[in-house]
Amino acid sequence: MTAVPLDPAPRVPPEPAAPRPGALLTVTGADRPGVTARLFGALAQGGDGVPPVEVVDVEQVVVHGQLVLGVVVGALPTHEGPVDGTTFLAALGRLADGVARATGVRVEVQAASGRGGRGTPAGRPHHVILLGRPVPPSAVAGAATAIAGVGGNIDAIRRLSDHPVTSLELTVSGAGATELRTALAAVAASTGADIAVEQVGLARRSKRLIVLDVDSTLVRGEVIDELAARAGRAAEVARITAAAMNGELDFAESLRARVATLAGLPVEVLDEVREHLELTPGARTLIRTLQRLGFRCGIVSGGFSQITDPLAASLGLDFAAANTLEVADGRLTGGLEGEIVDRAGKARALARFAAEHGIPLEQTVAVGDGANDLDMLNAAGLGIAFNAKPVVREQAHTALNQPYLDAVLQVLGFTRDEVMDATTPSSSG
């Protein structure tokens, strides 16, 4: 006879654990030493009906001497059984009153989830950086409205810098990068503030290499326009330059046409133009800060190596790529030597520079202003359009319209204090 297996006993699902009561304690008032220690000391000591608790979440900020401290705690189970939520809040209320009397601050208590802390909407959080001179309230209001409009939530706000530009960093959850950038672009256009968006994570602080365009980025003005002025062809060349930078002309074709107008200029003119170059404000601070933070720094230019190589040497840069003007008998021939560094060539130069130092492209930064920079900006982990043409601002990862090149540091998340620490020689050295 074949044995018939007995049906297994049905599994009885375990009883769900009783929810633990939680509370949010909010401390506000004039900041002074010992406030945080007093609050947590009281929570650790318990007594007067306060059960053992676990710290679920903490956030503290001091704004112009005023403290805001939020602490979420959850009640731990005791041998007497589950903790009653109403009794728990009442006991914490008495504890809060004692801390407030001892420290002179205000402590409010309200119910909160005992586990999980602040909500975490779906999606990786992002940093939204507002920059301006100054940052108008309309920019903050507009950014907050736009963020809410795409389902985002502002989790935190901090100031990154107050000089030479004011910059604020908002940590935003619940919205995607594309939606944020689209919504905030209109706010930037209407308020005049710069607004950048970057994903929160290690990638932001893992950047290790930066390349800068030269003309109208690292230095003010266009070198070829200065050379053309000395050849009496300034207006003609300026028109070609503007069309090329706006993406209306092929860069290589426009470069050859402009260089042809320089035929016959004595080579000494290059030295004259180089000596009169004016760095963009903040350029030295940007480079010096990043060098001391361990960055590799270089320039990639559609200009000329006779100008850029000495410039790179004077700034202590690690890399320089540019076109080379042909010279014969002490005069410019109106031609070029070697491979042209055009739009595609700039991206190749960035990749070559990164490969030489074993740095992945996602850990690189590129800064430029013209259409011939777009391939380089998009190849880098972070491409920044600096005082750029509209076509470049629309396609780059982010855009800066401030007159200071060191505002790039705030886009990278560095505070003014960190910049000062990096640029101030150590007293112990």
From TrEMBL:
<protein>
    <recommendedName>
        <fullName>phosphoserine phosphatase</fullName>
        <ecNumber>3.1.3.3</ecNumber>
    </recommendedName>
</protein>
<dbReference type="InterPro" id="IPR023214">
    <property type="entry name" value="HAD_sf"/>
</dbReference>
<comment type="pathway">
    <text>Amino-acid biosynthesis; L-serine biosynthesis; L-serine from 3-phospho-D-glycerate: step 3/3.</text>
</comment>
<comment type="similarity">
    <text>Belongs to the HAD-like hydrolase superfamily. SerB family.</text>
</comment>
<keyword id="KW-0028">Amino-acid biosynthesis</keyword>
<dbReference type="GO" id="GO:0006564">
    <property type="term" value="P:L-serine biosynthetic process"/>
</dbReference>
<feature type="domain" description="Phosphoserine phosphatase ACT">
    <location>
        <begin position="126"/>
        <end position="198"/>
    </location>
</feature>
<dbReference type="InterPro" id="IPR004469">
    <property type="entry name" value="PSP"/>
</dbReference>
<keyword id="KW-0479">Metal-binding</keyword>
<dbReference type="Pfam" id="PF21086">
    <property type="entry name" value="ACT_PSP_2"/>
</dbReference>
<dbReference type="Pfam" id="PF13740">
    <property type="entry name" value="ACT_6"/>
</dbReference>
<keyword id="KW-0718">Serine biosynthesis</keyword>
<dbReference type="InterPro" id="IPR036412">
    <property type="entry name" value="HAD-like_sf"/>
</dbReference>
<feature type="active site" description="Nucleophile">
    <location>
        <position position="213"/>
    </location>
</feature>
<dbReference type="InterPro" id="IPR050582">
    <property type="entry name" value="HAD-like_SerB"/>
</dbReference>
<dbReference type="InterPro" id="IPR049148">
    <property type="entry name" value="PSP_ACT"/>
</dbReference>
<keyword id="KW-0378">Hydrolase</keyword>
<dbReference type="Pfam" id="PF12710">
    <property type="entry name" value="HAD"/>
</dbReference>
<feature type="active site" description="Proton donor">
    <location>
        <position position="215"/>
    </location>
</feature>
<dbReference type="GO" id="GO:0000287">
    <property type="term" value="F:magnesium ion binding"/>
</dbReference>
<keyword id="KW-0460">Magnesium</keyword>
<feature type="region of interest" description="Disordered">
    <location>
        <begin position="1"/>
        <end position="21"/>
    </location>
</feature>
<dbReference type="GO" id="GO:0036424">
    <property type="term" value="F:L-phosphoserine phosphatase activity"/>
</dbReference>
<dbReference type="GO" id="GO:0005737">
    <property type="term" value="C:cytoplasm"/>
</dbReference>
<feature type="compositionally biased region" description="Pro residues">
    <location>
        <begin position="7"/>
        <end position="19"/>
    </location>
</feature>
